[in-house]
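input
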Amino acid sequence: MNYGFIGFGNLAKAIHAGLKSNKGLAFAYLSKTSRHSNIQAFDKLSDLVDFADVLWLCVKPQQLHEVLPELKKLDLRGKALISPVAGKNLDFLQKELGQEVTLIRIMPNLAIATKESITAFTSLQNQSPVVEAIKMDLMELGTVLDIPEKDFD
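output
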């Protein structure tokens, strides 16, 4: 499975650090502010979307107004999007993207890099094999708790 990070700040780096030794996973990112030599970088969102099976929306809430309209223009069918963005629920993302995309919301902590995170997890497509595979990857980074999204905040 190919994981693509939109934004590569502290949380994306922590997730990458925790999962990078897993066989069968490949990683890339898009970031306007930083460059890293140990992971493939893309300059265009469309190239990252083409690469990734799973997109990690690792931007700040105030950056969503830039990212979501650009994502909406791209073909996201068959992709999963994971959002740890605080204060923006799955209904909001679904309305903004307007496409059929597998949506997952998580709320981890930075202990995810040392595989000791407690991560809240929910999805609109809980029985999907892709959702289950992502959940299994997250379980390698600590404890994953399925909780209703209304309890995240």
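quick obs: The chain has a mean pLDDT of 92.
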